[in-house]
Amino acid sequence: MSTSKLFVDLTIAFRNLVQHRRRTLFLGAAISAVTALLVLLNGLSTGVRETMIDTATTLSTGHVNVGGFYKVTAGQAAPVVTDYKKVLAVVEKTVPEMAFAVHRGRGWAKLVSDTGSMQAGITGIDIRSEPKFSSVLQLESGKLDDLAQPGTILLFDNQAEKLGVKVGDALTISAPTTRGTNNTIDVRVVAIAHSLGLLSTWNCFIPIESLRALYQINQESTGVIQIMLNRKDFDHIPAIAARLRQALDQAGYRIMEPDPRAFWMKFQSVSREDWTGQKLDVTNWEDEISFMTWTLKALQGMSVVLIVILVAIIIIGIMNTMWIAIRERTREIGTLRAIGMHRREVLWMFLLESLMLGLGATIGGVLAGAAIAAGLNAAHLPVPTGLQFFLMSPHLHLSVHGSLMVRSVVLITFITGLAAFYPSLKAARLRPVVAMSHFG
Amino acid sequence: MKKQTIAALLAAFALNLLPGPAPIRRAQAALTSAQLVELLKLVDDRQKNNGDWRAAAYLEQKEKDKVDTVYETEYFRRSSDQKFMILFTKPKSSAGQGYLRIDKNLWFYDPSVGKWERRTERERIGGTNSRRSDFDESRLAEEYDPSDEGEEKLGAYTAQKLMLKGKPGQDLAFPVIRIWIDKENKNVLKRQEFALSGRLLRTSYYPKWKKIYSPSKKGDTWYPEEIRFYDEVEKANQTLVMIKSVDPNPLPQNLFTKAWLESKSR
Question: Which fold has domain B3-263?
């Protein structure tokens, strides 16, 4: 088909669409609305996923982690990696994709204030080597930099409220050491951050030196090495974890079997096992927050159901409209066939009209969806407290990427063409004599 | 002073164990290390049974802003191989649960899930402030090095006060203990247990001691009929343990097994 012929066909299709202005506008608006909704749904799902990754990989996990347990006796497991610098050397050699790595202490202890107490996960960090930490946390009061001083603690607002403390107040942290001896440390609250949902409910931060003092572990030991990757490598996380597991095994470390659960969910099974000494555990971010990824899966499942319903509506709408158009234009089809137009040209003409309508409407819909998403993001819409728990963000965040926009345009345009195919085929099969004598 | 602290003090006063207002320390020659170790051995020996032991224990836990929890248990121990077992009998929701010490492992059984979990030796029994060691035979001389802190009046009693520091290599829940021993009968009257950091974690009072004739020891064995634990970190929390129905006669050989404990909930 020559370019000039295609141009003529496009012109005819365009004119036909203009000719049936009302129908075109109605159907175009419907397709645009569905496309915009598709973009918004996907944007919400992607936004929640990205927020979840960002928050989780700042608060409690790396994209890939090398953690593990040290057992002094068979029944006493501590989340400790001994001689972590040697492990880190293997990690650096094996994972060239690594953007950076941090090491953190892990623990579970009782926080006691003058007016209350609570059990909480204690993370020991070196705030000076945590480049992303300040970008995720929103401080309610205090200074994050003060967490560099020993004997300090960062709490989240819900924890501070439960304990009845504010910045400057003292807390006692009580926990058994790795050998089971009771110990305490006194800490001062230096910062209180806004809650970040489920992960911040049971997690608080102290300097790693204070955590070592509490659990009586030496300078060469840590809780976990968290490996951070660049976004482009996110799809390769399982392969990187497998590679790392193999490299650590070859370097002589005992490795735990892959188990897609958070480290604290493994205490029972690890305690039941009979070994003593060190075993390393390689996990990824999804494993470490496996107890809450169901929210993401539920959201994605809901999006898929909604998208299927929307696509069904588009298909029914387009087919219905095409049937009406063909019925209205039966005599026109008969005339065109009588003056020599081939069946496939009739098919092509109707298909081209649908595709042109689909393309124009989806582009409009995608742009509208992206604009609404940008507006919602700019408005910093607060999320209800109950929902914050799962979304891990105080604000609604939609993430609309270019690839998503292109995918939406292609998908909906294709569906439009597909829906128009059968009615167009029926139109092309009309016999000229019958078509020309059609009334109504 | 807070309400809870006042309550604890009143309780201790009622038990006649508070330091008296009059001379707290009497002038006396400090005991030598050997004498202190002998004293600890005597304390241990009075409580040793050298055989099997069965008793019922009533546990009552009070915590701030929580409903009081009460457990009734039976506990069993065998001196020869340091076996130990606790079976919860009440309330209904906990009946059948239990702890079993085999070798150096403490196992917990929950019949509602039918699973055994290995727990640390320093497990809080039923979530109360009591530990397994509180029900076990006293091993102070084996586990701690004593130092003398002189005499002190505890109400009507004159007590020898010792500071005990954990021996190297011993895995102890409390690395430092201060203990008040009745000068007259060598029973423990009061204990203060400290964290590694030096912070006082728990104070225990032993207001009532009883003796029972033990055929395996061929002599009297002393046991505390009542123990009161006061949490010194969370001041409002306290635990009362009452020990009764003590039976020092030999127990069946197959008692200290997982199967026996499981059978109790079938």
Answer: outer membrane lipoprotein receptor (LolB), chain A (2.50.20)
